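To: structure subgroup
Subject: Chain for Friday's discussion

All,

I'm putting the inputs and outputs inline so they're searchable in the archive.
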Amino acid sequence: MTMRAFSRSLPMALMRARESVMAEFRPILAAHDITEQQWRVLRALVDAPGGVGIGDLAASTVLMGPSVSRILVALEGRGLIRRSPVDHDGRRSIVAATPAGFELYESISPASEDAYHRVEERFGAADLDQLHALLDRLSTVLAD
């Protein structure tokens, strides 16, 4: 059996695209001393102002649970997030962004949006919309 060419491997094509996109965002995150994964978690928490469970956070950020736990320790150490125990289950906690977390989000957001617009200008708004739709479809089809 012969395999398709490495250059035509879907996982590699997705990785190349991800790296190209992230090259636009990494300098912004580095300037604020936050990693890509920390930013992903902080963004998810800002979108869930009431907080979220760690399992749901891992699923929404596409990160493994142990990675999320390490990221939360770092973000908590910087005062960007807080954990609150769930009343009826002491083993679980709800994680939420703190005012400092929201402040960091607000300071990064303009530059992040500028980078997103640069990507959109170079790639094209319609193509970017189509790419989002195709990626959503691929994720849905493969999840079934």
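Points worth raising on Friday:
DSSP finds six helices and three strands in the chain.
The beta strands are 52-53, 81-86, 89-97.

D.
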